Amino acid sequence: MEAGRSGLRLYIDSASTSDWEKYLPLGLFYGVTTNPKLLGAIGIGFNLKEITELAAEAFYLGAGEIHLQVWGENLEDYLERGRALSDIDPRVRVKVPIDRQGMLAAATLIGEGIPVTLTALHAAKQALSAAALGPAYAAPYLGRMNDAGRDGLQEVLIMNKILRSLESPTRLLVASIRSIPDLVALAAGGLDTFTLTPPRLEELIEDELTRAAVEAFAAEVED
Predict the structure, then answer these.
(1) 3-state DSSP helix/strand/coil percent for the chain, to nearest 5?
(2) Is 37 a catalytic residue?
Protein backbone atom coordinates (compact mmCIF):
# COMPACT_ATOMS: atom_id res chain seq x y z
CA MET A 1 0.00 0.00 0.00
CA GLU A 2 1.31 3.46 -0.89
CA ALA A 3 2.53 5.46 2.09
CA GLY A 4 -0.18 7.86 3.20
CA ARG A 5 -3.11 5.83 1.85
CA SER A 6 -4.24 5.01 5.40
CA GLY A 7 -4.45 8.71 6.26
CA LEU A 8 -1.00 8.83 7.81
CA ARG A 9 1.55 10.95 5.94
CA LEU A 10 5.19 10.87 6.99
CA TYR A 11 7.77 13.07 5.29
CA ILE A 12 11.56 13.10 5.20
CA ASP A 13 12.73 16.52 6.37
CA SER A 14 15.89 16.73 4.30
CA ALA A 15 17.10 18.10 0.98
CA SER A 16 19.85 15.49 0.72
CA THR A 17 19.39 12.96 -2.06
CA SER A 18 21.43 10.44 -0.07
CA ASP A 19 18.80 10.63 2.69
CA TRP A 20 16.06 10.18 0.12
CA GLU A 21 17.83 7.16 -1.37
CA LYS A 22 18.11 5.64 2.10
CA TYR A 23 14.56 6.16 3.35
CA LEU A 24 12.13 6.47 0.42
CA PRO A 25 12.51 2.79 -0.63
CA LEU A 26 11.15 1.72 2.78
CA GLY A 27 7.68 2.67 1.57
CA LEU A 28 6.87 4.55 4.78
CA PHE A 29 7.17 8.09 3.49
CA TYR A 30 4.70 10.16 1.51
CA GLY A 31 7.25 12.70 0.37
CA VAL A 32 9.95 15.13 1.42
CA THR A 33 10.00 18.58 2.95
CA THR A 34 12.67 21.23 2.50
CA ASN A 35 13.36 24.79 3.60
CA PRO A 36 16.00 27.41 2.73
CA LYS A 37 18.31 26.20 5.51
CA LEU A 38 18.20 22.60 4.28
CA LEU A 39 18.84 23.68 0.70
CA GLY A 40 21.76 25.81 1.81
CA ALA A 41 23.23 22.85 3.69
CA ILE A 42 23.63 20.95 0.42
CA GLY A 43 24.91 23.95 -1.48
CA ILE A 44 21.74 24.89 -3.33
CA GLY A 45 20.93 28.57 -3.17
CA PHE A 46 17.83 30.41 -4.30
CA ASN A 47 18.20 29.13 -7.83
CA LEU A 48 15.14 27.86 -9.67
CA LYS A 49 17.12 25.67 -12.05
CA GLU A 50 18.87 23.78 -9.25
CA ILE A 51 15.64 23.48 -7.26
CA THR A 52 13.87 22.09 -10.32
CA GLU A 53 16.58 19.46 -10.76
CA LEU A 54 16.37 18.55 -7.07
CA ALA A 55 12.60 18.14 -7.26
CA ALA A 56 12.96 15.87 -10.29
CA GLU A 57 15.36 13.68 -8.30
CA ALA A 58 12.88 13.45 -5.41
CA PHE A 59 10.13 12.28 -7.73
CA TYR A 60 12.46 9.84 -9.48
CA LEU A 61 13.27 8.29 -6.09
CA GLY A 62 9.58 7.86 -5.29
CA ALA A 63 8.46 10.97 -3.40
CA GLY A 64 4.77 11.69 -3.78
CA GLU A 65 5.25 15.34 -2.89
CA ILE A 66 8.01 17.83 -2.27
CA HIS A 67 7.48 21.00 -0.24
CA LEU A 68 9.53 23.96 -1.51
CA GLN A 69 9.59 27.41 0.09
CA VAL A 70 9.22 30.80 -1.57
CA TRP A 71 11.87 33.47 -1.05
CA GLY A 72 12.28 37.16 -1.67
CA GLU A 73 11.96 40.60 -0.15
CA ASN A 74 8.39 41.51 -1.05
CA LEU A 75 4.99 40.20 -2.03
CA GLU A 76 5.79 40.28 -5.74
CA ASP A 77 8.83 38.06 -5.15
CA TYR A 78 6.73 35.57 -3.20
CA LEU A 79 4.10 35.42 -5.92
CA GLU A 80 6.57 35.11 -8.77
CA ARG A 81 8.56 32.37 -7.08
CA GLY A 82 5.49 30.60 -5.74
CA ARG A 83 4.09 30.33 -9.26
CA ALA A 84 7.45 29.22 -10.63
CA LEU A 85 7.80 26.51 -7.97
CA SER A 86 4.29 25.28 -8.65
CA ASP A 87 5.03 25.09 -12.38
CA ILE A 88 7.86 22.61 -11.72
CA ASP A 89 5.45 19.73 -11.16
CA PRO A 90 1.87 19.20 -9.86
CA ARG A 91 3.37 17.35 -6.89
CA VAL A 92 5.13 20.46 -5.59
CA ARG A 93 3.61 22.11 -2.53
CA VAL A 94 4.56 25.76 -2.17
CA LYS A 95 5.62 26.74 1.35
CA VAL A 96 4.77 30.26 2.48
CA PRO A 97 5.44 31.65 5.98
CA ILE A 98 2.39 32.62 8.00
CA ASP A 99 3.32 36.28 8.51
CA ARG A 100 1.40 39.20 7.01
CA GLN A 101 3.24 39.14 3.69
CA GLY A 102 3.05 35.39 3.50
CA MET A 103 -0.69 35.36 4.08
CA LEU A 104 -1.19 37.93 1.33
CA ALA A 105 0.81 35.72 -1.01
CA ALA A 106 -0.93 32.55 0.13
CA ALA A 107 -4.37 34.04 -0.47
CA THR A 108 -3.46 34.85 -4.07
CA LEU A 109 -1.70 31.56 -4.77
CA ILE A 110 -4.53 29.50 -3.26
CA GLY A 111 -7.00 31.53 -5.32
CA GLU A 112 -5.03 30.48 -8.42
CA GLY A 113 -5.38 26.83 -7.48
CA ILE A 114 -1.81 26.40 -6.26
CA PRO A 115 -1.40 23.94 -3.34
CA VAL A 116 0.14 25.92 -0.48
CA THR A 117 1.76 24.91 2.80
CA LEU A 118 1.58 27.68 5.39
CA THR A 119 4.70 27.28 7.48
CA ALA A 120 6.19 28.48 10.78
CA LEU A 121 3.06 28.30 12.94
CA HIS A 122 4.00 28.84 16.57
CA ALA A 123 0.66 29.40 18.35
CA ALA A 124 -2.74 27.74 18.40
CA LYS A 125 -4.43 30.98 17.32
CA GLN A 126 -2.68 30.70 13.94
CA ALA A 127 -4.85 27.69 13.12
CA LEU A 128 -7.69 30.18 12.70
CA SER A 129 -5.76 32.02 9.99
CA ALA A 130 -4.98 28.71 8.33
CA ALA A 131 -8.62 27.66 8.42
CA ALA A 132 -9.68 30.97 6.90
CA LEU A 133 -7.15 30.79 4.06
CA GLY A 134 -7.64 27.10 3.30
CA PRO A 135 -4.12 25.91 2.37
CA ALA A 136 -3.40 22.26 1.70
CA TYR A 137 -1.14 22.12 4.78
CA ALA A 138 -0.19 24.19 7.79
CA ALA A 139 3.14 23.40 9.47
CA PRO A 140 3.59 24.11 13.19
CA TYR A 141 7.12 24.01 14.63
CA LEU A 142 6.80 21.85 17.72
CA GLY A 143 10.39 21.98 18.97
CA ARG A 144 10.74 25.70 18.46
CA MET A 145 7.57 26.35 20.46
CA ASN A 146 9.03 24.33 23.30
CA ASP A 147 12.32 26.23 22.99
CA ALA A 148 10.39 29.48 23.46
CA GLY A 149 8.82 28.19 26.69
CA ARG A 150 5.46 27.30 25.19
CA ASP A 151 3.75 23.94 25.60
CA GLY A 152 4.26 22.81 22.03
CA LEU A 153 2.31 19.58 22.34
CA GLN A 154 -0.72 21.36 23.74
CA GLU A 155 -0.55 24.14 21.13
CA VAL A 156 -0.44 21.61 18.29
CA LEU A 157 -3.26 19.52 19.75
CA ILE A 158 -5.42 22.65 20.03
CA MET A 159 -4.56 23.61 16.43
CA ASN A 160 -5.76 20.22 15.29
CA LYS A 161 -8.93 20.50 17.35
CA ILE A 162 -9.68 23.91 15.83
CA LEU A 163 -9.22 22.68 12.26
CA ARG A 164 -11.30 19.57 12.84
CA SER A 165 -14.10 21.43 14.62
CA LEU A 166 -14.28 23.88 11.72
CA GLU A 167 -14.24 20.97 9.25
CA SER A 168 -11.23 22.51 7.53
CA PRO A 169 -9.56 20.36 4.84
CA THR A 170 -6.15 21.76 5.86
CA ARG A 171 -3.78 19.12 7.23
CA LEU A 172 -1.43 19.99 10.07
CA LEU A 173 2.07 19.00 8.98
CA VAL A 174 3.97 18.92 12.27
CA ALA A 175 7.64 19.90 11.92
CA SER A 176 10.56 20.44 14.29
CA ILE A 177 9.86 17.18 16.11
CA ARG A 178 12.70 16.53 18.54
CA SER A 179 11.60 13.21 20.05
CA ILE A 180 9.67 10.14 18.94
CA PRO A 181 7.58 10.14 22.17
CA ASP A 182 6.24 13.53 21.08
CA LEU A 183 5.38 12.06 17.68
CA VAL A 184 3.59 9.13 19.32
CA ALA A 185 1.67 11.46 21.65
CA LEU A 186 0.48 13.60 18.75
CA ALA A 187 -0.53 10.58 16.69
CA ALA A 188 -2.47 9.23 19.67
CA GLY A 189 -4.11 12.65 19.89
CA GLY A 190 -5.44 12.42 16.35
CA LEU A 191 -2.74 14.03 14.20
CA ASP A 192 -1.65 12.19 11.08
CA THR A 193 0.92 14.26 9.17
CA PHE A 194 4.54 14.68 10.28
CA THR A 195 7.97 15.50 8.90
CA LEU A 196 11.06 14.04 10.53
CA THR A 197 14.79 14.67 10.23
CA PRO A 198 17.05 11.66 9.55
CA PRO A 199 18.08 11.21 13.22
CA ARG A 200 14.40 11.02 14.22
CA LEU A 201 13.70 8.67 11.33
CA GLU A 202 16.31 6.30 12.71
CA GLU A 203 14.66 6.46 16.14
CA LEU A 204 11.29 5.72 14.56
CA ILE A 205 12.52 2.73 12.58
CA GLU A 206 14.92 1.12 15.03
CA ASP A 207 14.16 -0.59 18.36
CA GLU A 208 16.69 -2.43 20.47
CA LEU A 209 14.28 -5.19 21.48
CA THR A 210 13.28 -5.81 17.88
CA ARG A 211 16.95 -5.91 16.91
CA ALA A 212 17.62 -8.45 19.67
CA ALA A 213 14.69 -10.56 18.52
CA VAL A 214 15.94 -10.58 14.93
CA GLU A 215 19.39 -11.63 16.11
CA ALA A 216 17.81 -14.41 18.14
CA PHE A 217 15.85 -15.59 15.09
CA ALA A 218 19.10 -15.68 13.09
CA ALA A 219 20.84 -17.64 15.84
CA GLU A 220 18.04 -20.25 15.84
CA VAL A 221 18.40 -20.71 12.08
CA GLU A 222 22.15 -21.15 12.41
CA ASP A 223 21.67 -23.78 15.11
Answers:
(1) 50, 15, 30
(2) no
